Structures are given as structure tokens and as C-alpha cells.
Amino acid sequence: MKLFFLPILFLFFPLALVAQATDLISAARAGDTATIRTLLHNKADVNAQDQKGFTPFIIAVYGGHTAAAEQLLQAGAQVNHQDATGNTALMGAAFKGYSELAKLLLEHGAEANLQNGNGGTALMFATMFGRNELVKILLENGADKTVKDERNFTALDLAKQQGNQEAVILLQ
What we know:
Layout: H1 2-30, H2 33-41, H3 56-62, H4 66-74, H5 89-96, H6 99-107, H7 122-128, H8 132-140, H9 155-162, H10 165-171
Helix pairs in contact: 1-2, 1-3, 3-4, 3-5, 5-6, 5-7, 7-8, 7-9, 9-10
């Protein structure tokens, strides 16, 4: 009788792991550090991905949840993970204007020059969206202003297109 239930247990075990991953992504989206702590304690996969390649860490950063992002980093989240389109958490922080989060990511080894599927970089995102404090931070942390995207544009080209004079000065 005991042997009968063993195969059934193995059928449901993977479902429990999927549920934990989904729960961890939901907790990261809400910035719920207590739930994140509980799920990580129960062995949830800190680098689990949804169908778009988003990890709990990327979701926490996109939501501006610094404490949750730091907690996930301490649990082993991959700081340079790229989602299905090639975007990273640092690109999200640059796009959203989260300077303090960007600093945290860079302190944990985020690569400023990774390119997404269109060749875009965190510096390009910061430039396009007028996040000039982030432009400074990224340049101070090794962002290469000569990188070109798939359209052959640099961050300087994008700053000029957007009329972002402060970024133009920073990038010259």
C-alpha cells in the first residue's frame, strides 16, 4: 500500500516547486520580504523564471522594491540574468529611474554594458528616459558610451534625438 502512494507523491512534487516559484515571483512583485524569506527558507528557487524569463529578482527591481531585491541577491539571485528579450534588472532600474537600486546592483556585480535583443544598454535606457543621475552613475561604473544598438545608435545619439542636453554634455 505504501508503494502505491510513492509514485503519486513524485507526480505532485514538481507541481509544488512550480507553485513556490510562482509564489516567489508574486511576493517579489509585492515587495513582500516576509513571504520571500519564508519561501526561500522552504527552498524556493531564487532564480526561477516565468514564461517571459523574468526572475523574482528582476520583478522586485522593476517594482522598485529595494529590500526585496537585496534579500534575493543575498539568497543567490543572478544579478546579470537576461529575460527573454535580453533585458536585465539594471536596464529596468535605468528605465524606471531607480538610482539607489542601480547602485545596489552595480555593487553586486551588475554588468553595465550588457546589451538586450535590440542592442540597448542600461546607459541607453537612462539616456532615452531622461534619467541623468543614472547616466552619471552608469558612466562612473564603467558604462561604455561608444556601444551601438542594432540601429547603430550610441547613447549620445539617443540623447540628441530626445533633446536631453544634460545627457549630451555627460556623454561627450
